[in-house]
Amino acid sequence: MMHNKSKAIQDLYPDELAHCYGCGKNNLDGYQLKTYLVGDETIAHFLPDEKFTALPGSVYGGLVASLLDCHGTGSAAAFVCVQENINLNEVETIPVRCVTASLKVDFKAPTPMGVELKLRGKLQSIEGRKIWVDMTLSADDTICATGEILAIKIKD
Ligand SMILES: CCCCCCCCCC(=O)SCCNC(=O)CCNC(=O)[C@H](O)C(C)(C)COP(=O)(O)OP(=O)(O)OC[C@H]1O[C@@H](n2cnc3c(N)ncnc32)[C@H](O)[C@@H]1OP(=O)(O)O
After folding, report:
1. ipTM greater than 0.90, yes or no?
2. Fold assignment, 9-153
3. By CB count within 10 A, which of 29, 128, 135, 148 is most buried?
4. Is 23 helix (H, G, I), strand (E, B) or coil?
5. Domain extent listing, the chain
6. Which atom of ligand 1 is the closest one to the Cα of 24?
């Protein structure tokens, strides 16, 4: 799905920091999740294939958690860029990379297979190198999981 409001955050990570299985553009075997800044929130989409099955017809929770993980670190990087007045459409790379210190996931409803999942992120707060982001993962109009991440901006 295309968004015209920003480049994907993960496509702006420097090459040497872009091998993450969940979101690295340089990991051809990975999920290559793409997080976009749209207004004051972040959006990503992912369509799981059937190898990620938990019970037949539903998606494995570990995948749900890893999507929230990578959307969370990407969202954190985007919100730091906003705070630092970095326009994501005017740069080739961003000088910001965040890693997960803590991730909380609440599974609210079974995540159905065969539906494009939508992830949304909202900034909760930034305090120095610590960024908290609240997230949802939805299928159609149902919130299947919520997440809260504490991401840490890695040192220069
Ligand atoms: C450098 C290579 C980068 C590669 C990028 C690829 C990332 C791909 C995305 C991921 O999937 S990340 C994978 C899962 N995460 C990890 O493997 C991270 C493992 N943990 C660490 O490497 C370090 O603990 C971490 C970088 C997160 C923090 O270490 P630092 O030495 O940079 O910072 P520090 O320990 O001083 O913590 C900074 C602040 O965060 C707080 N903090 C850290 N971990 C916390 C935690 N778990 N819960 C609550 N607070 C936490 C800590 O108390 C402190 O607060 P204050 O500044 O107020 O004192």
Report:
1. yes
2. Thiol Ester Dehydrase; Chain A (3.10.129)
3. 135
4. coil
5. 9-153
6. 8
